[in-house]
Design goal:
Elements lengths: L3 E7 L6 H9 L5 E5 L4 H13 L4 E5 L5 H15 L4 E4 L11 H10 L4 E8 L5 H18 L12 E4 H10 L8 H11 L4 E8 L11 H32 L14
Parallel strand pairs: 1-2, 1-4, 2-3, 5-7
Antiparallel strand pairs: 4-6, 5-6
């Protein structure tokens, strides 16, 4: 059985979230919004959206900010409680194209045991410093998985199989803030899940809001890489056997490019 919904973590994106939800619903897929303790203006906008789409949009709310990862996992748990097998995560700020959703879900249905991970195809709006800085994380991910099976570990557009993702989180909590996207993907790969890398169009709106905190989030990410490296060492024989022992289609570098 394959049953999917969309989960959107939201924190003070009141100017972008309405258009994002409209675009998601145009793909005929239900949506779970998780308000991560937004300010009143954004909270009111989320209330308006939920009231406008009863039965199609569900709004969850954190009383205290838990970070992007915390919001995503809250949405995943609610999706699983509703009987969904998969959840597509997409950012609230409009960076991603909602019309990519059907393609991602079709690939997820073809590979239901894999994570379908977006690989950004940037337009000219991308800040060059972000483009270069994220490459450092890519290198660490390739080291800590002893593989290049994960092309990009930071993209906010991906599809997760819910049962193994939530089970792994119960055994070892994923990072809850800006370290979440990379942490969850590396640890799911370690646990045996394959990764299908799918090109995804990404743009940076001129009025986009970033919640990346330079000192706090860089320290979290650096700590994550250190922990991953320590975790990779005892797993190295298994990871190398996996890399050289088999090559299933799930680990192709790209699958179904932008249309």
């Amino acid at each position: 059985m394959f049953k999917a919904c969309v989960v959107i973590p939201v924190y003070n994106h009141q100017h972008a979230i309405g258009a994002m939800v409209d675009a998601v619903l145009a793909q005929h897929v239900p949506c779970i919004l998780v308000d991560d303790a937004s300010e009143p203006g954004c909270a009111a906008e989320l209330d308006r959206i939920a009231a406008a789409y009863p039965g199609r949009v569900e709004l969850l709310r954190h009383a205290v900010n838990q970070g992007k990862g915390g919001a995503v996992l809250t949405g995943f748990q609610r999706a699983a409680d509703h009987g969904y097998t998969h959840a597509l995560q997409i950012d609230a700020d409009g960076q991603h194209r909602a019309d990519d959703i059907p393609r991602f879900l079709a690939i997820a249905q073809a590979y239901p045991g894999a994570v379908i991970a977006g690989c950004p195809q940037y337009d000219d709006s991308v800040p060059k410093i972000r483009l270069y800085a994220r490459y450092l994380t890519h290198v660490w991910v390739w080291i800590n998985t002893l593989s290049m099976a994960i092309t990009d570990s930071m993209c906010g557009l991906r599809v997760y199989p819910l049962a193994p993702t939530l089970a792994l989180n119960r055994r070892r909590r994923f990072g809850r803030r800006m370290d979440f996207d990379t942490d969850v993907l590396v640890r799911l790969y370690w646990s045996g899940l394959d990764v299908v890398n799918v090109p995804a169009r990404v743009g940076y709106p001129a009025d986009g809001v970033s919640h990346f905190r330079l000192l706090r989030d860089n320290l979290l990410i650096a700590r994550m890489h250190v922990l991953h490296f320590a975790g990779m060492l005892p797993r190295a024989p298994k990871l190398l056997l996996r890399r050289f022992g088999r090559r299933p289609p799930h680990t192709l570098h790209t699958l179904n490019g932008p249309q």
